[in-house]
Amino acid sequence: MSKILIVDDDKNLLEVIKYNLMNDGYLVVLAENGTQAVEIARKEKPDLIILDVMLPGIDGFEVCRILRKEMSVPILMLSAKTDEIDKVVGLELGADDYITKPFSVRELMARVRAALRRRESNEQHTLSNKLKETRENLIIKGHGLEVDTVRHQVSLKGSVLNLTPKEFELLAFLMRYKGQVFNREQLMEKVWGYTFEGSKRTVDVHIRWLRQKIEDDPDTPKILVTVIGFGYKFEN
Question: Per CATH, the architecture of 134-234 is what?
Answer without folding.
Answer: Orthogonal Bundle (1.10)
